[in-house]
Amino acid sequence: MNLKNLKNEVLVQNTKNLIKEENRILANVLAHFQEIETRKLYLELGYGSLFLFAVKELGYKEASAQRRIEAMRFLKKTPEARPMVEKGELNLSNLSLLERVSREAQATHAQSVAALNLIQEEQTSVAEVENKLRGYFKLESKKRVVKIEMDEETYQLWLATKAKLGEAKDASAIKKLCESQVERPQKKVRQAATTRTAGVVLRRELLKQAGHQCQYVGQNGRRCENRHFLQADHKVPYFLGGKTVPQNMRVLCQQHNVHAYQKLKEEKIF
Q: 63: which residues sit within 8 A by CB, 6+ positions away?
């Protein structure tokens, strides 16, 4: 593309036209994200979360994927924002911020719309927008700043850990990682084939066989990489006569466990 021969006014007009197209494309991308989440298509393809799908399947950087997911979720619950996106009156950063703050405030639809109109009054920095929104929702800052120094190898390990946890933010990933390492007391019961829940011994055996990883395999042959919040699931459902024995058990992450149950309902198995 050679732009050197374009007249100044043509160059400026072409740029404006491209920006309009860019805004329209962003709105369409977010609409596609919403439909993918509605269909839970990422589960079919072996991903434990929409975030992992966006990073590993669509090729987004972690922060970019998180912003688009948050923006999509705000548009989903506040459709009044969509025309603003298409017109370029609302950018991705502010959309993402609106979702985070309104979710923290447990805002109603009316409050979300009011917050949306509030930040349209003037163009300000993201930090100023956040202060304005937190002031509107009467939210206090409860964040703690912790500085951690690490070498490059450790940093790369941390990035890989966050990706596996399906979290883009350090704080959320740390919380999920800590929760996964704290063993909750489990009631030890005598295991029998007619027992609905896998006991401690059977669960330990299943996790070992699964390599402590979700065993769901998507339509494309890809196995889910989730290693946290794993559950022992019956291949033949317990309520359909399936026994709680190793041959009829598998390890699934929470989301794929729910997904497998929904597929049985869609197939009218029960």
A: 168
